[in-house]
Amino acid sequence: MASVDSPVIFKEFCPLYYLLNAIPTKVRKGFHSIVVYLTALDTNEDYIAVGSSIGMLYLYCRHLNQMKKYNFEGKCESITFVKLLSCFDDLVAVGTASGRVAVFQLVSSLPGRNKQLRRFDVAGIHKSSITALAWSPNGMKLFSGDDKGKIVYSALDLDWGICNSSLVLEEPSSIVQLDYNQKVLLVSTLQRSLLFYTEEKSVRQIGTQPRK
Known about the structure:
The protein is mainly beta. The chain has 1 helix and 18 strands. It has one helix at residues 17-20; strands at residues 26-29, 32-35, 38-43, 47-52, 56-61, 66-71, 79-86, 90-96, 101-105, 118-122, 130-135, 141-146, 150-157, 162-170, 175-181, 184-189, 193-197, 202-206. This is TCPR2 protein. InterPro entries: WD40/YVTN_repeat-like_dom_sf, WD40_repeat_dom_sf.
């Protein structure tokens, strides 16, 4: 006799005021007051990462109930995408409207983990807004896509503090989603979805009809 599935219960939760109250609604720049918009979001069991229109990343630690702030040096620009990863170290990748990508290696209080905040930059390849980011499970590979169709692969060596990046694929339309697993990168653009095999550097399209 087939078992009867229990009914799905939807539950409404209240806004995260403890998080929102830790993020300013306006900041002063010279004599002007600038409204802060929340532009990107990612979560995992340990953190809630929120990107903003002023180039500030707000990172809320769920275990310590603490909010920390990270920013890019130089020009203030809107953050368009954030991606968290918990592996041996806690990592967060951040992309901006002008194509800057940075990786923050977070400080951990656990024995043998990272004790100093470090930042890695993916420089000089993307020239337009970052629309997607994807980690490998071990944090050694980061893929970034932009609204001009470029996909960049960054190899990170956290022990030596090295980040080497290269352009691996270029599509004719904006990248909307990336996901990586077992040497295969799933790519979705405004026109099609495809599998990019990173070892062979070959492409296999999913489906035959272009998106409209």
